[in-house]
Design goal:
Elements lengths: L1 E2 L8 E2 L21 E6 L3 E2 L7 H10 L2 E7 L3 H13 L3 E5 L6 H7 L2 H11 L5 E10 L8 H18 L2 E7 L2 H11 L5 E3 L6 H10 L2 E4 L9 H9 L5 E3 L21 H12 L3 H16 L26
Helix pairs in contact: 2-4, 4-5, 7-8
Length: about 325
């Protein structure tokens, strides 16, 4: 992800990929029962004509997506997430240092400083989760794993100390993530973001009471293993997300993703589970509020000063 954006409400841009369709898809048919996108990255611009944060949230509202968890992955995006959530009633925030960033910070001697910022942000209003944190052995080699483990354990401690949910990034590290959680003790509300495991991992999560958040890949034709995990995941532990602007669900795979496309994933899950979409959406909404609380539990900031330049005079997003 590169710094800079065509839109002042973004602070990063998605890296270009050759041959990818960069036009945002049309809005789906609205859900009858609304849901929450519990993991998205609205600070990242994407597409030929990037949607502003306000446009994304307005579109989401129009199709039954009631709110989002805006997720930080480093100091800059975590600060941005906390600041935006403080002013936007449809947004709550999660803050963390992404595991792939930890080896470089450790080498530079600045990992502890970054963790201290996350600890400070965790105490701010409308910050409801620590994430995304965890382990990623896909992009980080053996030399960087010690830093990932240290950072992961520090994030777990921050989440428990502040009484916040934990959003886990787990890529090619299922066994090590589980072992760490069992060894140090998982927070009461632990979420496997963009769940990527099989039925065995789903059963283990169910036994521990850990939530499983499914994203666009559950709708992909080649994701039979993921749907087998969905089959055994208790409905009371299901969440849903976009991970926007990535992982766009079928039928728009590869195009820019956004919270307003979440109904595609919900409908794919309901179809596979052979259940009514409204019933599943109601369950997911209840689960989401149990994990993060209500979006109106803490008031937004409506005063004119001081405010971030990205915030409009009315208190909403510019």
């Amino acid at each position: 992800m590169a710094n800079g954006s065509a839109d002042s409400t973004h602070i990063r841009s998605r890296e270009a990929t050759a041959g990818r369709d960069l036009v945002y898809p049309p809005a789906p048919v609205p859900l009858v029962v609304g849901v929450y996108d519990n993991h998205t990255h609205l600070e990242i611009s994407d597409g030929i004509t990037p949607l502003s944060v306000a446009e994304q949230l307005d579109l989401a509202s129009s199709v039954g997506v009631r709110g989002v968890i805006q997720v930080g992955t480093d100091v800059a995006t975590s600060r941005w997430s906390a600041e935006m959530a403080a002013h936007e009633p449809r947004m709550l925030a999660a803050v963390a240092i992404h595991p792939n960033d930890t080896p470089e910070l450790e080498t530079a001697g600045t990992l502890d400083d970054a963790l201290a910022v996350i600890d400070e942000l965790a105490a701010r209003p409308r910050v409801v989760a620590i994430g995304e944190t965890g382990l990623d052995f896909y992009r980080t080699g053996p030399d960087g794993r010690a830093a990932q483990f240290r950072s992961f354990e520090a994030h777990i401690e921050i989440a428990k100390r502040h009484g916040l949910a934990l959003q886990i990034h787990d890529r090619d590290a299922h066994d090590e993530v589980v072992a760490t959680l069992l060894r140090v003790g998982a927070p009461e509300r632990t979420v496997f973001h963009c769940f990527s495991g099989d039925a065995e991992l789903a059963r283990l999560c169910a036994d521990q009471g850990w939530y499983m958040s499914f994203a666009g890949p559950v709708s992909f034709k080649n994701a039979a293993t993921l749907r087998e995990a969905l089959d055994v995941a208790p409905r009371a532990l299901l969440l849903v997300e976009t991970d926007a602007p990535y992982l766009t669900p079928t039928p728009h795979r590869g195009r820019p993703n956004a919270p307003y496309l979440l109904p595609h994933t919900v409908r794919a899950m309901a179809e596979h589970l052979q259940t009514d979409v409204a019933v599943l959406a109601a369950q997911i909404t209840s689960n989401t509020e149990l994990v993060y609380g209500r979006w109106d539990a803490e008031p937004v900031v409506l005063t004119d000063t001081p405010r971030d330049p990205r915030i409009s005079p009315a208190g909403g997003l510019a």
